[in-house]
Automatic annotation (TrEMBL):
Pfam families in alphabetical order: CoA_binding, Ligase_CoA
Assembly and binders: Heterotetramer of two alpha and two beta subunits.
Catalytic activity: GTP + succinate + CoA = succinyl-CoA + GDP + phosphate; succinate + ATP + CoA = succinyl-CoA + ADP + phosphate
Gene Ontology CC terms, in alphabetical order: succinate-CoA ligase complex (ADP-forming)
Protein's UniProt name: Succinate--CoA ligase [ADP-forming] subunit alpha
General function of this protein: Succinyl-CoA synthetase functions in the citric acid cycle (TCA), coupling the hydrolysis of succinyl-CoA to the synthesis of either ATP or GTP and thus represents the only step of substrate-level phosphorylation in the TCA. The alpha subunit of the enzyme binds the substrates coenzyme A and phosphate, while succinate binding and nucleotide specificity is provided by the beta subunit.
Sequence ranges assigned to domain CoA-binding in this UniProt record: 4-100
A molecular function (GO) term: succinate-CoA ligase (GDP-forming) activity
Binding site for CoA: T17, G18, K19, Q20, K43, I96, T97, E98
Length: 288
């Protein structure tokens, strides 16, 4: 199994005809994703890379039962595009876009919560469940198996997942929360889904300095029956300096590497010092 989406999920892409939308549409199709429609204002009625185009999300959902949508939309227009998908009734929305204004993000996330919609992102690499990829993750890294992965960092996730795949350990689902200060979902949301998924036998949590997301996740990890292996980026980051992501900044002594390691360890998670250690730790917990 997998969480949120699977190989039967019907996927829409908003911004499908742009450079990024077209490139990643092809990669998603190669992965096995069932892309059934795209939205491209002014191009409705055409076919793009084998996918029918529509003027609006509402037109697309009238013709196709849409389970999830991926947004390759420029930041100034992303709020309207996300709200259109929410109001059209799509339940999983992946927002790849970065540099969305914070107030726009707050509006999107709050509206999604009111409607019972799951937002992955903004500023995310997306997510992948076996044969269904929503976003920009590299196809070659993934394989089917028993490990769930939830992360704030993209490239670290690719490295860790690729290393797991190389030793024959696949994944149920891999989810990128996004690096902004206003994520649509958090670690706890995804940990609950992995805990309930019978095919997920262990979970990898890829965190980073800044904020308190990992500390909050620690409280839920205490209740989990499945082992959690964590890796945290930013060990050497100086206080007050943002490291890549908007949320990756230590402020007023909060969000430190040491504090997160302490919280996770006390909750029962194993914390790797280096990314390559995650593979060894997962191998050991899966053998138990």
């Amino acid at each position: 199994m997998a969480i949120l989406v699977n190989e039967q999920s019907k996927v829409l892409i908003q911004g499908i005809t742009g450079k990024q939308g077209t490139f990643h549409l092809k990669r998603m199709q190669e992965f096995g994703t069932n892309v059934v429609a795209g939205v491209a204002p002014g191009k409705g009625g055409r076919i793009h890379e084998g996918v029918p185009l529509y003027e609006t999300v509402f037109e697309a959902v009238e013709e196709h039962p849409i389970d999830a949508t991926v947004l390759f939309i420029p930041a100034p227009y992303c709020k309207d595009a996300a709200l259109e998908a929410i109001e059209a009734g799509i339940k999983v929305i992946v927002i790849i876009t970065e540099h969305i204004p914070v107030m726009d993000e707050l509006f999107i996330v709050n509206r999604a919560k009111m409607k019972g919609v799951t937002i992955i992102g903004p500023n995310t690499f997306g997510m992948a469940s076996w044969k269904c990829k929503l976003g920009i993750l590299p196809n070659v890294a993934f394989s089917q198996g028993p490990v769930g992965v939830v992360a704030r960092s993209g490239t670290l996730t690719y490295e860790i997942v690729g290393s797991l795949t190389n030793v024959g350990i696949g994944q149920t689902s891999v989810v990128g929360l996004g690096g902004d200060r206003v994520p649509g979902t958090n670690f706890i949301d995804m940990l609950k889904l992995f805990e309930a998924d019978p095919d997920t036998k262990a979970v990898v949590l890829v965190g980073e300095i800044g904020g308190n997301a990992e500390e909050e996740a620690s409280e839920y990890i205490k209740t989990m029956s499945k082992p959690v292996i964590a890796y945290l980026a930013g060990k050497s980051a100086p206080p007050g300096k943002r490291m890549g992501h908007a949320g990756a900044i230590i402020e007023r002594g909060k969000g430190t590497y040491e504090g997160k390691v302490k919280a996770l360890t006390e909750a029962g998670a194993q914390v790797a010092t280096f990314p390559y250690e995650v593979v060894d730790m997962i191998q050991k917990v899966l053998k138990k």
